[in-house]
Specification:
This protein has 123 residues and is an all-alpha fold. The protein has one domain. It contains six helices and no strands. Helix 3 packs across helix 6. The radius of gyration is 25 Å and the shape is elongated. It starts with a helix and ends with a helix.
Amino acid sequence: MMNMVALNAIPATSSSSNTVSSVLSNPIFELFLIFIDGLLFGLGIKKGVWSVILLILAVMLAEYINFSVLPKASLTTFYNDVKAHVVYILTNINKIIPFSNIGAISVSLILFVVGLIIGYLKG
């Protein structure tokens, strides 16, 4: 009998102010999610940097002992490929990142960068 009364006390209308769309459209919640996104990106970048460093050390060690896990893989070809890619990015930076809107630094961008730095340092 008690459960029946409790169920009848809940209004059946869907006009409550805490729907999923209202929470997601809340600007403060969006800023919080942007900050969390920056934290996760910073953590991922830190783990990725360590993975690349360990991978380079493994390739150097394998090359030193004349052991090849991957055929035709050497440190010089890896270095040349990375160098060519970095040069390509630096020469085409204006096409990759549009700098026409660079003056519009918003709170969301600042929170993302802060989250990125904290995630990288604390990860």
